Amino acid sequence: MKENNKKASLWKSLRVGLAFLAGIIIYAYGFEITKIDLEELRSETRQQSLVRVTRALAQPDIFQYEQESQIFTAPVYVTCPAGDAVIAEPDTSEPYVIVTPACAEVGETVTVEGFNFFPNSSGPVRFVPGNDPTNVVELGNDTANADAEGHFVTTITLPNRPSDDVQFIRATMRRNVGAPQFTQTAHDTWEKIIETVFLALLATTLGTILAIPLSFIAARNLMKPVRSPLTSIALSTLGWPLGIALGLFVVNAVADFTAPFTSSILVNIASVLLVPVVLTFSLRWALPQDDVASPPLGLRLGRLVVLFVSALIGFFWMYQLAGLSMNVGRSTEASLGSFAFFGRFLVQLGDILIVTTPAVGAFAAGSVFGNFLGRVGQRAAEKINEGTVKIVNLIASAAAGGTVFGLIGWLVEWLYQIGRPEYTQTGPILVGAALGLLLAIFTKAKDTLPTGLVIYYITRTILNTLRSVEALVMAIVFVIAVGIGPFAGVMALGLHTIVSLAKLYSEQVESIQSGPLEAITATGANRLQTIIYAVVPQIVPPYISYTMYRWDINVRMSTIIGFVGGGGIGFLLQQNINLLNYRAASAQMIAIAVVVSIMDYVSSVMREKAV
Amino acid sequence: MLQVKNLTKIYDGGVKALDNVTFDVPKGQFLAVIGLSGSGKSTLLRCINRLIDPTAGQILWDGEDVTAATPEEMRRIRRKIGMVFQHFNLVHRSKVITNVLAGRLGYVNPAWSLVNRFPREDMDKALRQLERVGIADKAYQRADELSGGQQQRVGIARALMQDPKMILADEPVASLDPVLAHSIMKHLEEINKNDGVTVLCSLHFLDLVHRYADRVIALNEGQLVFEGLPSEIDDKKFKDIYGRDAERVG
Lengths: 611, 250
Known about the structure:
Chain A is of the alpha+beta class.
């Protein structure tokens, strides 16, 4: 027993030792790979440039002064002439400079003394050759600083420019006049930092809106109980594409119908105001509040027709709203002067509405058809006898499999342009149909399958894949798609926000208290009602807090997204770094720091208020 | 009339929570379910409205086979069965009135309820139920601002909104002090006597069982070990139900 213990402890210490050794090896290799080399840091040239850059960074290019300058040029002989060097006495009532001695050899040091300059002014002291006055020679440490009486003393080393003629030492002393002013860099920085903040705002808004519905289908606790029989799944899978196609067709028809009526503002206003009234009445009739008993078939059909017509009117209304927005926008843009951006905003809003309406319609029709056929399948699986259900399953499942694979094949064809239908059309359709058939053969006709979990895993996989692509890389893609500028940045950050927020949100949904969920389910509420009444109230505070956090991240991200052309301040920063204009870069870095810390503070305050 | 026949529930991990349980509950009875923690009381109550799907056995209620009901039928059955929970299970951040109105979700049109629109009658009814349990003045406060006893009353009002024919109460007073426990039990008793609602209530304290229950069933490790009148639980029966080492308190 004791022997055993001893052995165990020996083994244990051996293992610790081995782990330690392994750790050292890993870090040694890490040093090698990352080329850690302090020698580089000590080298003269590196240190010099580091000092230069650091000093430039310490003087951000934000303020500038108007300057006035006094120039005095004093004669000097390099080398001493044969006779005496004759230097005229300067006018001592004006600023003047005396060089002593008045002549010296190349490489000798002379003292330069200035009098009567502006108090506390400063400026360069330079050597001006006599034969070529434009070729001013910069000397080493040549900046002179005058004291409160306008007097300075400095020493300079004469350059290798010997001449028999008189040559000159020129002092240019400057002082600042008046109040400090913002530099051009400061103005540019301000403009771009505003762009950055709004880029982050729009990306966050877009991301949040789309992440919320995604987060529900990426939440395991909500999706796990969703199970449905194969009949329902197959029919629903067929219903979605059918519905999307029909929806697109119908919405486009409505668009064509609406087009002639959208140009007049009066028609716009009239329809935007009247349609909601009509819709309220028709919906109130078609969707009664209390629906305890099942209504007769005729009434139900009537309601369906009214709902369909209401949907058509609804799309008409959306197009009219878009038209109104664009018309009002155009007229304000022309007449409002400095508020023209508001007009452009309205025009863009209208355009967005026009672009999204077919998508909304297609999605709505898809979900209606998918849900309806799914329900028919559910009913069939419940009520019809096993044999018939099996036959329905075989047919529907094969058709669904064929459709899904056919669509994937179509996408592949579109992407890679293979041009061989046996690989991208007939092939996939046959394979899909065969797989569907197999699924239908090997599942019991009335068994329920974990639909929810399958959707959950698919969603999670897509989210994780997209999330692993950095927003910066996405920005490169969007720069190609929509061109250089902040719009590409909004799209890239927005997409990244959708996927990362959807994941964070869904984890919040997964960690809600299950008690209320259970209680609401027990009242006979359906799934959607349960989500609205038991889940949503619980997740509001964490959703707000994550959205704020994400805005914070987006502000930081948008400062560098400009490096790849995504707009915002990053573009300016990168440009200045490349031009070695470190003082301007410094101004931009300060702007970023200020904005990020303000955002940090504001978001923490808002989070506290909301939660 | 509720009939439970050979009900068995085995959880995914292999735990047998209910083992071949059979009993009847006549309409309008106040039935207490007793047993140690983990004896299967909660599982039994949740099997009756299928919050948990039983592994085997059958549950018949008013002639309907609950165990065979489709999801759609199950919703129609559930809305007639109110449920009250040990931890109240209110939605904390919602108003009291919203919590109570949630009891109508099985009846109202889903489309309108999603935007929080309830019929006028339901609003009035919710206020009446809150009045009935004595907290009408709290209707527009947030649920988590209420004390434990008040929260359980909201839970009862929510169950009452369903116009229930049966109430399942899962240890409704286990988180409350003795005084509040009696007041909550009195509400359940009043609903049972006046409205003729069948009540199945799991309880820990035998004095509450003696005071309120018409009949008792006892579970031990998922098996039905006793069925009879509260007065029939003597010391020997007590040891059968709660184990050899158990001692009576109250």
